Sequence to fold (166 residues):
Amino acid sequence: MPGFKMKNIRNVSVLVLATGFGLGLSPVASGTAGSLLGVAITLGVAGAGLTLGVQVCLAVILALIAVPVCDAAEKIYGRKDDGRIVADEYLTFIICTLGLPWQTHLWLLPVAFVTNRIMDVIKPFPARRIQEIKGGTGIVLDDIVSSLYALGINWIIYYAVTRMVA
Fold:
């Protein structure tokens, strides 16, 4: 039955992506573990010297990729926003670093990581309500909103720190 094998291969592929290559299987703080892959992706594109416009386009593309991955994984697991699904965390992480000069101010990347995780956990309005949307759309949109909050906080921290030092 070739269809059966192809379905299994597809499911395995989806779950590998959805779990962040296994990071989401962490028994503790799976979302935080999965977000580490987002840091790696951000570091990976850092050397390219991308303009803000290209960074935004990349963030949109990654978020759009996350929606069907999270949707399919949710169907496989049979639970709304299963904790093992972390593609939403790692594929939207780059949003909280948009435009920030973290390459020259390396302290900004760990700050961005912490603020992003805090915002994802507390889910400020309207993130918590958005999370109720069915499927991958709800799974990813709440992380986008939380990442945008983190981005704003990161910019405030950047300006505050650089003004104090200057």
In short: The mean pLDDT is 93. The first helix runs from residue 2 to 18.
